[in-house]
Design a protein that fits this description.
Two copies of one chain form a homodimer.
Chain A: H1 9-37, H2 41-52, E1 57-59, H3 60-67, H4 71-83, E2 87-91, E3 99-103, H5 105-127, H6 132-152
Antiparallel strand pairs in A: 1-3, 2-3
The structure holds a DNA duplex (30 and 30 nucleotides).
DNA sequence: ACCAGCTTGTTGACATGTCACCGACTTTGC
DNA sequence: GCAAAGTCGGTGACATGTCAACAAGCTGGT
């Protein structure tokens, strides 16, 4: 039973800032999307890859890989979006287990209405306050932490 | 109607990394807490300020201010934790509208079981991979973005 | 050809989070 | 004093996310 290694005061402060940022930034994004197009962040996450794909159709498996979501979460979200007319489901020709997700006209209109405001929001809140050097270093920091999380979960 | 300002490829990459980190780090935390003590991240967030307060009691309003949660979210979470015996609710002597939240013995045992592993996890995943310079820079970046979000929501 | 094991998607139960609203109480301005 | 406005906590409806389990189809080794 070894002595626990607590965080230093500096580290605790940075950690608290990170948690605050996670929440407030999420909230700012949700509000911008809701205001500009009535979409949630979850809606936007799925509509974005769909709108960039050929014909606005993706196999559920591939859409899941794009956003790195669990299958169950994806299925639930697609059901909710289907109910609101943003996407439709179709059978998959190649693989009878599969399911194709197709962007509807309404879905395309919604993401096209939301996208410019979304990009503007991310720029204003995240990138405009940083110098190009800081953006690079921020990216490096994220890489290091991501590596550590990746190593940890394997 | 002006041309939208899209993200540069570098910015889009950093933004994608940030979103991935947000998800995977949250997941790593949830799993560590669940494994070490059966607590969720939401449980931990409330138990931590409670365990550091005098007698393990805080007024709901003040607990909410500590964690910066909405009242409704706090109330729901306290109800769930009360049902599992982690906290109890009491009347507030000063203010008849108020509600005091008290840590139970079981709640204290749970947070004390979880805390060392939590600190170790945060160190391993976030701070050990970074040099002290990078930690400082990361803190500065978070400050800048937090300021921008704060300005934006006022 | 077979079948054990893998992949794919869905579902139901439950935990979490947000929103609009209410009811009770306190504070403020007069 | 007292009415208007603000504060505090809770509730119900709903959206989101996770987990375990399932059904169906695919795949590879024999």
């Amino acid at each position: 039973m070894s002595e626990p290694r607590w965080l230093t005061p500096d580290q605790a402060e940075v950690w608290a800032k990170y948690r605050t940022l996670r929440r407030t930034l999420q909230r700012a994004q949700d509000q911008q999307l809701q205001r500009d197009s009535g979409l949630s962040a979850a809606d936007y996450a799925l509509l974005a890859p769909l709108s960039e794909s050929a014909d606005g159709v993706l196999r559920a498996r591939d859409l899941g890989a794009e956003v790195d979501w669990e299958r169950s979460r994806l299925s639930h979200q697609i059901s909710r979006m289907e109910k609101r007319g943003l996407v439709t489901r179709e059978a998959c020709a190649d693989d009878a287990r599969g399911s194709m997700v197709r962007l509807t006209e309404k879905g395309r209109e919604a993401i096209e209405a939301a996208a410019p405001g979304h990009a503007e929001n991310v720029r204003q809140l995240v990138f405009d306050p940083l110098t190009p050097d800081e953006v690079r270093l921020f990216g490096d920091v994220l890489d290091r932490i991501l590596d550590a999380v990746e190593r940890n979960s394997r």
